[in-house]
Protein: lytic cellulose monooxygenase (C4-dehydrogenating)
Amino acid sequence: MSLCYITEVALEIFPSKPSTSHSPQVRSSSSAHSSSPKALTACLSFTYYIHSTPNLKQIAIMKYAATCLGFAALAAAHGYVDNATIGGEEYTFYQPYLDPYMDPAPERVSRPIQGNGPVTDMSLIDIQCGGYSAGDQPGSSPAPISATAEAGSNVTLHWTLWPSSHFGPTMTYMARCPGDCTEYLPGKDAVWFKIAEHGQNADGSWATDPLTQPGNDGYTYTIPECLKPGHYVVRHELFAMHAAPTQVFPGCHQLKVTGGGDTVPSDLVSFPGAYTNENVEYDPSKDSYDIPGPDVFTC
Structure:
């Protein structure tokens, strides 16, 4: 286990300010920030301490400190959805550098992700809700609980601070669960319909640009008002197109949708299947970028 894992866990367990929430899956929006910068600060402090009090044993520890700094710098380079506002409640999402080491594991409404790294092979199950097949962590798994929200309401997702160089579009999909989403894995079935997409603006800016600003308002999508009540998995993603191949950062969370709608969308796609390694690529010589996937569902 790297020192950054240790420091990040320690900072979560022993925060500088006491938590105002005792619920494992809900926290106030005032704490809606990534702990990676805090972990980096802790790593720097630890490295300085070792450097200022050297001895033979600490020479070996210095190697771990170097690893710690490298890991923290890498962690700051990408991102994931840290928390969300759903149905008027604040939910902490799955914390990839904390939750795997907690006993008991916190109950989240979001499905596990492998970390803050991207998916670059569109043929892998990882493209659905995250995963790291190359590291023997293929795909994701259901979350133990779901958040409740009314059809027609907004959901706001707060990403960790996004790097300004990683420009690209945002897309959001939903899939209706046959029962309780806490046991549902879509596999390669065509069950997903797109509810939102946002690419490049007329002024040349991208959908990801607001997420690069400290204290930003996050990303907001609207649950279709006509949607039939039931349980759904929401799949949200960002593309980073600063380099080839395109990097995709997907993640999923679970909703219990209420309301009086009666529509079940029929234009469905699968993940993997909806994208290819070719149709997600960005060509800077073209005037626009064609967002891959189906058309956005409208009521």
